[in-house]
Amino acid sequence: MVRTAPPTITSKDRDEYGKCKYIIREHSKSWMAFAEAVKNVRDGRLYLVEFDSFNEFCDANTPYEISWVNRLIEAYEASLLIAPRGAAKSLDFITSAKHWLALKEVSGDRIDAVLKRIDKEGGNKPVTTALIQKAIYGPSGKPQKAQAASEKSETEDAASALKKSVVDGAVLSRETVTSTVKQSNDRPVAITDGTSDVVRAVDPVDV
Q1: pTM of the predicted protein model
Q2: 181 pLDDT exceeds 70?
Q3: Which comes out higher in pLDDT, residue 187 or 140?
Q4: Which of 25, 108, 154, 180 has its CA 20 to 30 A from that of 69?
């Protein structure tokens, strides 16, 4: 809801608010300029020139949900904290908000090492999400918990497929099973009779 500005709003505030609104309208030229402008409106409470809340200001003046506006501000703030470290040439190639958000999650004592990895792997090419994830999490590009969950899901999918084959009366060779079924702790998911080269037909609850 548009409101009448309270007496606490100064002419300087109005001028700054007008400048920020102009930048926000032209935000497609630079997400960083957009984020800086909305941050100034939020932190300086400049939205009070016209609105009761920052949410209302964003609804009327940006194409984004308030949650994404705040995430863009977080990315911009991360760039302000990390960029001054300056030694990494890769900083010149980090242009995406989501990349800054990923780097924001790296603890301060690790960020220099992560940037060095990005420098080494990326050369003079634009930085990608995959490159940043690899620099943060290692070769897998995933947090350890996420990687473990992914492997567990693959194992469960393979076990489910095997169970269906048994239920459908299919007889699979041990070679087929070991080549298609995910191993778990070096043990086959399949149940064999221990001597023959085929999987015995078992009740599904046993698999």
Answers
A1: 0.61
A2: no
A3: 140
A4: 108
Number of structural domains, the chain?
3
Q: Is 70 inside any structural domain?
A: no
Return the number of other C-beta atoms located less than 10 Å from residue 5's C-beta.
14
Give the whole-angstrom CA distance, residue 115 versus residue 82: 10
Structural tokens at position 29: 């030229």
Same domain for 56 and 88, yes or no, is no
Q: Tell me the chain's radius of gyration from C-alpha atoms.
A: 27
pLDDT of 68 higher than 50 = yes
pLDDT at site 138: 86
> Could you say which of 137, 165, 181 is where a domain stops?
137
User: 10 Å Cβ neighbour count for 100?
Assistant: 25
Q: Is the pLDDT of residue 145 over 80?
A: no
Q: How far apart are CA 179 and CA 138, in angstroms?
A: 27
Q: Give the chain's length.
A: 207
Q: Domain for residue 149, yes or no?
A: no
Residue 142 carries which DSSP code? S
| pLDDT score of 61 | 95
Q: What is the pLDDT of residue 173?
A: 43
Residues 82 and 117 in one domain: yes
Range of the domain at 20: 11-63
What is d(CA 91, CA 100) in angstroms, rounded to the nearest whole number? 10
Tokens representing residue 65 in the block: 């949900």
